[in-house]
Write a structure and sequence with these properties.
single chain, alpha+beta, Ubiquitin Conjugating Enzyme, four-stranded antiparallel β-sheet, two-stranded antiparallel sheet, 58% helix
Length: 353
Amino acid sequence: MSWFFTKSSSEPYNSFPVTTPLQQQRLNQIKSLAQHLNVIEVQRDIEYRVTFPVAGNTINLNILLPPNFPNEKPIVTVSPKLKHPWVNEQMIIVDAPGLKTFYVHSDLGKVVKQIIKEFKTNPPQFSNSFSPSTNLTSPSGFNQQLINPVKEVKLNVIPDRPPHYSENHKVIASNKCTYDEAIQPCDIQTDINNVMEKLKHFSKIELENVCNNEDLLLEYIEEMKTITDLQVQRTKLLEENENIAVMNLKFETQIEDKQVDLKELIEESDDLYHKFQNKSQKQTELLQMYEIGHISTNLRISILEVEEDSENIADQFLSGSLNLESFLEKFLDKRKLTHIRRAKEEMLKSVFV
């Protein structure tokens, strides 16, 4: 069992020698993969495999982590060979939304789980699975060689689903069916049966001519209602996309103007915020200055200072350095100020205590 996915391993996860933030992020992504799925480690820290059943077949997903992962998105390949809108000819999954938008903070486990869900919801077509010749009765003298070209050409004519297709964004067809419903095997089977009805009346020479003439065979396939409906639908979708793109371009100037306005509002907001901070600080200082306890303390200190001054005046008079008239004037002023401040102190205490 692998060093990572075995819970009973004697070496804990956090003992892995992480020396850079990139390596730590890489390890977190691998942990996410293990939390969501039953994963087999093919090559430590580089390649992992997920196996799951679909429609009686077993599918293997190989997840290859590049050197710069997760700054670089992983490469996910599928086996055995199959056909699915998300998979290209090299069996690499390229159109999965999670892979297309993958970035350093994506969840690799959820991305792979989304791919598995898509395969189970919309099973792929395997190389040994359904073909147009299945359950068809060939007319008398009809060569089996006619069946294989039909299968090959059909697969080339039917358009793939759009790259942005997802389970939550199905395109509505002109007959009020979803895009998936427009290419159901039962509809293709009906069209093939209609073609076979026409071929039943052909002679052996005519059948051999159809089998050997790829253009003639392609003509029969293009006349199938399923194919024509899909071609019309694709044309409509292309026109709609073009109209949306043109409409978006019309809003470009407005968006740029709004961006400028937004930038100005942000600058104004920052300026008002700094002013608010300064005024809030000034308000705090004033609150501290005019706090009741602070005022009472200052008032008590001033009373003691005035009493000390009045005592100094009395000492000067007793020592003979101050005449009676000056003594009375200064001493009475100081005592008057002392009583006024003491009255204020008592009033302050009676109001706020």
